[in-house]
UniProtKB/TrEMBL annotation:
Domain Tetrapyrrole methylase: 2-135
The protein's annotated pathway: Cofactor biosynthesis; adenosylcobalamin biosynthesis
Identification of the protein by name: Precorrin-2/cobalt-factor-2 C20-methyltransferase
Similarity annotation: Belongs to the precorrin methyltransferase family.
InterPro entries per the UniProt record, alphabetical: 4pyrrol_Mease, 4pyrrol_Methylase_sf, 4pyrrole_Mease_sub1, CobI/CbiL, Uropor_MeTrfase_CS
Superkingdom to which the source organism belongs: Archaea
Catalytic activity, EC: 2.1.1.130, 2.1.1.151
One Pfam assignment: TP_methylase
Organism encoding this protein: Halodesulfurarchaeum formicicum
One of the GO biological process terms: cobalamin biosynthetic process
Keywords of the record: Cobalamin biosynthesis, Methyltransferase, Transferase
Keyword Disulfide bond: no
GO function terms (MF aspect): cobalt-factor II C20-methyltransferase activity; precorrin-2 C20-methyltransferase activity
Length: 213
């Protein structure tokens, strides 16, 4: 049968696609990688059909691989006999836990895997932070990959969990920076002052050279 990777968008349940909503409502089981994804899914399906899966916040590749394989072992039996969904903030194919689960699911030949795109941070941040991408290339990466010291004039860093260190690196590289924390959520913040932000997984930094962000 089928496992659907469903993108929930940037945080506002109203930004879930019609297709994503329909599949969550149809799925016998909905799996979520954390509280926020489970909360958004809960807007569309009963809580008893939602199961949270645990993924450690670590860079230890062996621990991460073990978590993905354990998640596949949980999801596979339900997906082999019915329709299930794995929901994720943003888009399932863009810096998402779902891409790792999808690779782990290749061992289970009886399960078809399909992706339902969601509004990703790559499009949502421009509206939330009132910036325009209309000229020249933009470097997009997770913050842990580091700052491009000789990169393009525009850079978007995702998952900025250490705002202070990131800001120091970006300004040293000649960038002006605007930050967005928990965009399209109830406690969203957009600021150029990094000291006003608490460290948060759902923080992005948009940096530009030679002009105000």
């Amino acid at each position: 049968m089928t496992l659907y990777g469903v993108g929930l968008g940037p945080g506002d349940p109203k930004l879930v696609t019609v297709r994503g909503k329909e599949l969550m409502e149809r799925a016998e089981r909905v799996y979520a990688p954390g509280d926020l994804a489970a909360e958004i899914a809960g807007e569309f399906v009963p809580d008893e059909r939602i199961e949270q899966l645990s993924f450690p916040m670590t860079r230890d590749e062996s621990a991460l691989r073990a978590a993905w394989e354990e998640a596949a072992e949980v999801v596979a039996p339900a997906a082999e006999t019915g329709t299930v969904a794995f929901v994720t903030i943003g888009d399932p194919k863009i810096y998402s836990t779902f891409s790792h689960l999808e690779r782990a699911m290749k061992e289970y030949q009886a399960v078809d895997v399909e992706t339902v795109p969601g509004v990703s941070v790559l499009s949502a941040f421009t509206a939330a932070m009132d910036v325009t991408i209309d000229d020249g290339p933009i470097d997009v990466r997770e913050a842990r990959a580091g700052v491009p010291t000789d990169g393009p004039d525009q850079c978007l860093l995702l998952k900025v969990t250490d705002v202070t260190a990131t800001h120091q690196k970006l300004t040293a590289a000649g960038y002006d920076v605007i930050y967005g924390r928990r965009l399209f959520m109830n406690d969203a913040t957009v600021t150029t002052e990094p000291t006003s932000l608490e460290d948060d997984y759902f923080t992005v930094a948009f940096a530009t050279r030679g002009r105000s962000a």
